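Reviewers of the previous submission asked for a worked example of the structure-prediction workflow described in the proposal, so we include one complete record here. The input consisted solely of the amino acid sequence. No template or homolog information was supplied to the procedure at any stage.
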Amino acid sequence: MQGLILAAGRGSRLGDLTHNKPKALTKVLGVSMLECQILALETGGVTCIAAASGYMNEMISTYISNLFYNIDWQSSNMVRSLLCCNDYLARNTTIVSYSDIIYPSNIITQLVEAKGDIVIAYDPHWISQWQLRFDNPLDDAESFQLNDNGSLKNIGSRIDNVNLASGQFMGLFKLSVTGYNIIKTALECEDAAFVNNLDMTALLSILLTREVKIDVLAVNDFWFEIDNAKDLEVCEKYMEENNIILI
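From that input alone, the workflow returned the following structure tokens.
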């Protein structure tokens, strides 16, 4: 099992915190998110880790030597970074992680063991974290609904009712080689501008319209997304108050 961290972005919403380093190197209680991710992946059963890099590429290389440079990092999104790692994803099943989230290793262990060509981790108790991060949780929430068989039914639309979200995508997922090839095939006729602007939930929504089965893994452990300075402050406070240690 191999791992891939999508770490091309600067994270401009973090302001001065990413003036001289990539978003992934933002520290949470003294430890960078990237270090937390590497430890979680390795402890959870991943034996090889690569990264999609871009902004201040050389700083990521201090931690991960196997890099795939996204030359369009300033004008593209997560899906483009994923596709930049084509050769890597085509060789083995891969756990893919955003670089702006922290999580414990047991989530990785569960994802490694999960069945399916495309398996996404989601938080069924998302509202608690969103209430900490946003004055109105619906400002950043997207639709997330499941089929009767437990697979993904709907994702990525704006919502005005919490009942339309059985969870929220965490930015952590598993792709078999077959799963990655399904994604490649779905995008092969799209132009570069479309792909550059495509985010991950929009991609998943496209796959659903083509009747691709997307399996899910419900996560009940602590995890946190850090997109701006407020998120960082809230996360650190929550971890300290609840004695949460990830590394």
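Residues 2-242 form a domain with the Spore Coat Polysaccharide Biosynthesis Protein SpsA; Chain A fold (CATH 3.90.550.10). We consider this example representative of the routine output the project will generate in years two and three.
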